[in-house]
């Protein structure tokens, strides 16, 4: 169960990590913890399942990346780990993960590719298909049509229960 210091830490990371060489040290300065305590508490919160993961949200459009595609494949489950490891090594792949199949959607391996334009993304995908031998697997390429608000998780303390006497 998180204590008040954990809740303060969660509130602080909800807005994102500071863009600096040592973000955990910077957070610690702001809330009266040293860097090691911040890292330790975040690790404990992750172990407890209160934080699933920490990741980076890249706002790609301001950087000139105007085309992005989620590519999904239907690959044998036994090959997920190996193929996911290969795919994630490519610098143009920003996400690579597994999701369970559904009856209407048979795909289980997902990756996101960002590029300056659609042709670049398709060329990168061709490179990925050849290098990882993905050509025999059913796939879909889903290009984004618009950009949604990008943000991380918001952590809030549980609501306080108020009871009335009488």
Write a structural description:
- This protein has 166 residues and is of the alpha+beta class.
- The chain has 2 domains: 4-47; 61-143, Alpha-Beta Plaits.
- It has 5 helices and 4 strands.
- The protein has helices at residues 4-13, 23-31, 35-47, 80-87, 118-132; strands spanning 67-73, 93-98, 109-115, 139-143.
- Strands 2-3-1-4 form a 4-stranded antiparallel β-sheet.
- Helix 2 crosses helix 3.
- The longest helix has 15 residues, at 118-132.
- It starts with a helix and ends in a 23-residue tail after the last strand.
- The mean pLDDT is 85.
Output the keywords.
four-stranded antiparallel β-sheet, single chain, 2 domains, Alpha-Beta Plaits, alpha+beta, 166 residues, 5 helices, 4 strands
Give a short summary of the structure.
With 166 residues, the protein is of the alpha+beta class. The protein has two domains: 4-47; 61-143, Alpha-Beta Plaits (2-Layer Sandwich), CATH 3.30.70.
